[in-house]
Amino acid sequence: MREIPFNIRAKLGSAPEVLSYIDRLQATIDSLQKEVEWKDKVIDLMQRLEQEARKTAKDATIMNETAIMALHNATEKIKSLCADLQDMRNREGDGGWVPVEREVPASDEDVLFVLTGGDRPIKSGIRVENGRWWTGGEWYEANEVSHWRRLPEKPGGGECKDADL
Known about the structure:
The chain contains 2 helices and 6 strands; from the N terminus they run ααββββββ. By secondary structure, it is α+β, with helices and mostly antiparallel strands. It has 2 domains: 6-90; 96-156. Strand 3 (122-127) and strand 4 (133-134) form a beta hairpin. The relative contact order is 0.07.
């Protein structure tokens, strides 16, 4: 057993006072241990909450990035559809005729085209790679054509070809 130092013995006095002092010390120690345990539990809880908050923030960031990408894709699709709609309106407003300044058909696509000049006859033919237009018997230079349109469907459906005209 350890011996109590003289200066403590002098302060404590008799045995009952020592026992009372030891009891108070033990009560203080118990109280401090409970406080330490409580603080450890609070620290543990705070660390778990911080981890959950970080995970939630990460999930929210991923969801936000996904939402932004979906919104971007939807915006691009809407722009494309609006452009298509405007193109259709432009064509319908002119009976489907497209000015060659705005657009030309794909090469070798059967189309109707309008010649520039006085009576502006309508011809059936194709535009070829070099920009010239061919009717199957006549050539026309690019500057001789003002408008074009795709061939209409045959009555009863199906694609109309140059040979059908």
